[in-house]
Design a protein that fits this description.
The complex is a heterodimer of chains A (83) and B (568). With 83 residues, chain A is α+β, with helices and mostly antiparallel strands. Chain A contains 2 helices and 6 strands, in the order ββαβββαβ. Chain A has a single domain, classed as Ferrous iron transport protein A (FeoA) (SH3 type barrels, Roll), CATH 2.30.30.90. Chain A is 16% helix and 39% strand. In chain A, strands 1-6-2-3-4-5 form a 6-stranded antiparallel beta sheet. Helix content of chain B is 63%, strand content 9%. In chain B, helix 13 packs antiparallel against helix 14, helix 15 runs antiparallel to helix 23 and helix 15 runs parallel beside helix 24. Chain B is elongated and about 80 Å long. Classes of the chains: A alpha+beta (83), B alpha/beta (568). At the A-B interface, helix 1, strand 3, strand 5 and helix 2 of A face helix 3, helix 8, helix 12 and strand 10 of B.
């Protein structure tokens, strides 16, 4: 099995899907994301990012979440092989 | 008995709440803190139970202000109705399992049941009930399906008190439950999702936002003018005027009480904008000019809120708002400010840092005109041509941006990043929109009417005593020199401190030119918030920051007014 591509949620293209593998931020960020169900192992699909390093919108299950670009750059995602 | 309605944000709690309580609901603020909650009552057999709509929360270990409130209220409840969004079982169960650790009995309302089935999500309710150890009732808040069953099973609520040693263990349990009760069937991409994705897209989002903005403006004007033309004006002209004229005759067409109550007659008639009587101008400004626009504004706002558009706007505006030292979420208090600055300043509590609250509240007080003021500006300045109204709005908007840029630079600290859930688009539940509209209009009338009447009375008495001539002479250099306004307009500016709508009304008899109207209404909008907003500002920001904000307002108003005077 080949090594899958990993990148931050901020760098993903709109429409790309993958699995969260690690959240690099501190405890506060981890807790807030976890409360919304975003934690390692979660499947996410990027929807869009606003221009000029604006917020990143993504889908996890049936929830859409928008987070700042800085936070999105701390969420490491392993990109699905098929995408 | 106290029943708490708890759940994640955007799970349809408020709709369920209004179904459970009927219409007897009151809006109130949570003492000492910040976030609004709603209270109502429910008849349970012989007993009258109090039912509380707790602010939405993802967890009872608070990570934000709203969640702190929810966690505090949890201690007071006798029974919890945990509202779950059936389309997001996994995330919602996180809160459920936390609630089930507590010694308070819980019953689960599996809401948005219809939506889940629509999206191809099947949930085995009996199995879920068994796994959780508490009753689970599928409900559809919008249609009322399942509400009867929910009420009849309240007594079965249980407190299993299963405790998890870590959140990992809890998530493992959730994964286990979801895999046992939920199955997905294939479905198509719905038009709603296409629209949802489009409004999160940078260009599509901006196009939609502009469309929404334009539509909002036209609907507000259309509805507001419709109410004025077909309801309030006929009532005032055909019913109220004849009555007042009779009263005027009975009081001898003049004298102290006549002038206080009916006001001065202009060419033998009542002029609702100039007579300045409590029963003429006082009532007319409130009911004849302002309320129609308040109704139409809150009607449109309610729809935007309940359709789920505002969070998308917040994301779209986030980059711009960061330049102003805020984040996207601050757009929500700002939009509320277009209705009334008082709830808007209170809503800045949703912002996390003190710096953001200061900037947001100051910007709202300066650059966001309330509906009462706008109604009068459109009415009075609009007579001179719509382009002058546009100049007033444009000046306010530019000031809002420029002052924001300056504050972002000048005030220490930084603004945290946005993190928020974007709810799916939903059809507005008309019932909730109607109730919310009624609550808002009613509380506006209750708060504003006494002050409007008081302001009209004070103006009238001060006129009679000649106090205004005195003030006008002192303020004349600033007014005429810098702003190019006649010294009499100081009266209106001073009254602006009490009520902006009354104040603009007082400009009417001065015979100002279009330019003078633009300058005076712009200055009035910026220079001071009304006294009610002042009180809230002082409470929210503290005396020192309130004084700072006031200094900024004064300076900004004088600068912008002088610039307008020079350029126009």
């Amino acid at each position: 099995m080949s090594q899958n591509v990993q990148m931050t949620l901020g760098k993903m293209e709109a429409g790309q899907a993958g699995t969260v593998i690690q959240i690099l931020g501190g405890r506060g960020l981890n807790r807030r994301l976890e409360a919304m169900g975003i934690r390692p192992g979660k499947k996410v699909t990027k929807i869009s990012s606003m221009l000029f390093r604006g917020p990143v919108t993504f889908r996890a299950d049936n929830t859409q979440v928008a987070i700042g670009f800085g936070m999105a750059s701390k969420i490491m995602v392993e990109i699905d092989a098929s995408a | 008995m106290k029943i708490l309605l708890m759940g994640n944000p955007n799970v349809g709690k408020s709709v369920l709440f209004s179904r459970l309580t009927g219409t007897r609901t009151i809006a109130s603020n949570y003492p000492g803190t910040t976030v609004e909650f709603t209270k109502g009552s429910l008849k349970l057999g012989q007993e009258q139970a109090e039912i509380i709509d707790v602010p939405g929360t993802y967890t009872i270990e608070p990570t934000s202000k709203a969640e702190e409130v929810a966690a505090d209220m949890l201690r007071e409840g006798d029974l919890i109705v945990n509202v779950i969004d059936a389309t997001n079982l996994e995330r919602n169960l996180n809160l459920t399992l936390q609630l089930l650790e507590r010694p308070v009995p819980v019953i689960v309302a599996l809401n948005m049941w219809d939506d889940a089935r629509h999206r191809g999500i099947n949930i085995d309710v009996a199995r879920l009930e068994e796994l959780l150890g508490v009753p689970v009732v599928p409900t559809v808040g919008v249609t009322g399906q399942g509400i009867k069953e929910l009420v009849s099973r309240l007594s079965e609520a249980a407190a299993p008190q299963v405790i998890y040693s870590s959140s990992d263990e809890r998530w493992a349990k959730i994964g286990d439950i979801v895999s046992q009760v939920q199955s997905l069937s294939h479905r198509h991409h719905t038009w709603r999702e296409v629209l949802e994705d489009a409004s999160s897209h940078p260009t599509g989002g901006i196009a939609i936002a502009l469309l929404v903005l334009v539509a909002t403006f036209f609907i507000i004007r259309f509805v507001g003018e419709g109410i004025i033309d077909y309801v309030t004006d006929p009532i005032f002209n055909w019913l109220w005027t004849p009555l007042l004229m009779k009263l005027s005759l009975a009081l001898g067409s003049g004298g102290f009480w006549h002038d206080i109550l009916v006001g001065r007659l202009i060419n033998g008639n009542i002029d609702y904008l100039q007579s300045l009587g409590l029963l003429s101008t006082g009532l007319y400004i409130e009911f004849g000019v302002v309320i129609p626009y308040i109704v139409s504004f809150y009607f449109v706002l309610g729809i935007l809120e309940d359709v789920g558009y505002l969070p998308r706007l917040a994301v779209l505006m986030d980059t711009l708002m960061h330049r102003l030292g805020l984040h996207g979420y601050a757009i929500i208090p700002t939009i509320l400010g277009l209705g009334c600055n008082v709830p808007a300043v209170m809503a800045t509590r949703i912002l996390e840092s003190r710096r953001e609250r200061f900037i947001a509240a100051t910007l709202i007080s300066i650059g966001v005109p309330c509906a009462a003021l706008q109604a009068m500006v459109i009415g009075l300045v609009g007579q001179q041509g719509i382009q002058y109204v546009a100049i007033v709005y444009g000046s306010l908007f530019v000031s809002w941006i420029v002052i924001g840029l300056i504050l972002n630079y000048a005030v220490k600290g930084f603004s945290p990043e946005i993190i928020m859930e974007i709810p799916p688009y939903r059809f507005p539940p008309w019932r909730v929109i109607g109730e919310k509209l009624w609550l808002r209009v009613y509380s506006f009338i209750k708060e504003a009417l006494p002050i409007v009447l008081g302001a009209v009375l004070v103006v009238n008495v001060l006129y009679m005593l000649g106090v205004f001539d005195f003030i006008a002479n002192i303020a004349a250099p600033v007014l005429t020199g810098l702003l190019g306004l006649p010294k009499e307009s100081v009266v209106a500016l001073a009254i602006g401190f009490l009520r902006k709508d009354v104040a603009v009304g007082m400009l009417a008899p001065l015979g100002l030119t279009a330019k003078q109207l633009v300058v005076s209404t712009t200055v009035m909008a910026m220079v001071f918030p009304c006294v009610a907003t002042f009180v809230v500002l002082a409470r929210e920001l503290g005396a020192r920051d309130m004084l700072k904000a006031t200094g900024i307002m004064l300076a900004a108003a004088l600068i912008v007014g002088s610039l307008q005077n020079m350029i126009l």
